[in-house]
Amino acid sequence: MMKCRRCRGPAVVEVRRHNAAFCRDCFLHHVREQVRRAIRAHDMFGPDDRVLVAVSGGKDSLALWDVLLELGYRASGLYLGLGIGDYSSRSAEVVRRFARERRGALEAVGGELVEIDLAQAYGFDIPTAGRKGSRSTCAVCGLSKRYVFNRAALERGYDVVATGHNLDDEAATLLGNTLRWQTDYIARQAPVLPARPGMVRKVKPLYRLSELETAAYSFLRGIDYVVEECPLVAGNTQLRYKEAMNRLEVTSPGTKAQFLLGYLDRAAPLFRAEDAAALTPCRACGQPTTGRFCAFCRARAQVLGLRLEDLAGREEDGERQVARELSEEVLPAELYGGAS
Ligand code: AMP
Ligand code: FES
Ligand code: ZN
After folding, report:
1. In the CATH scheme, what is the code of domain 31-274?
2. Which residues 6+ apart lie within 8 Å of 85 measured at CB?
């Protein structure tokens, strides 16, 4: 029987990467410590900051919201309804129940659950966008999430948006970006993206914890979460990178952590110069972009069959504008995060 590294009692969870095992209470302590360390090391937010946690209904983001409330942070949740059939309705239900069960803790820190429905707010859902637009479903989904998270936080006066990206997510994204040498994406892959005009700070407090650890945490805390993956991601390249990293991890525990944490420690500074794009307000919605219209408005116009000028509510020289749009190959959406 394995013994808990901290208290020598019977262990229930093994963390091979740390060559350690923990009992229930010491494991929960370990997870909170890893989050606390991440927050402190990168100055993510303080006790007075209002944090908006993007919660999908999956284990990672619910675990994150739970840990932040346990640590006493002013953490609210944001659920974005993507309109992906049963998957979305079940996710919404799980998130609502989580918030109901923590009403007391939320009231104590002035937190709330913010719900936004993409179709209601912006006129399209993700399956439709995948069918009608020129981007892949996952690309337009990622772009929409980053856009809505940022806007929701700005409009409601939050200081920072936190997502549940874990060590496995970040290592897989880094692997994908490295295999293609997307140096601008690599440069922006950080546990913290500082605020810029029109953009709130983005943080990933779970980047030091693996998927197994967040799953074990949720299980031990009795958090009910949606286990199934989004039905639209099947065959997604991100998943293949995750599988590849998992195979390496089996024979060499610690590979993922070395790859990601080693990058953050030693290589990230070398890429920083890449991240210097100038931002101006999108002519349709006012959110920051490197072009005239932001990637979200361009995708939305395409899906809804609208002209960008109509979104902007102003008459412009159509032909010339279209030519410019077509020649504009920068994707400002990626400013909000990785290329996943
Ligand atoms: P994913 O893009 O599905 O890997 O999710 C990455 C992170 O984005 C999650 O850990 C959540 O923090 C957030 N997220 C994903 N989907 C949603 C959603 N529908 N509503 C709110 N947050 C989400
Ligand atoms: Fe975005 Fe499935 S959650 S495509
Ligand atoms: Zn113990």
Report:
1. 3.40.50.620
2. 127, 231
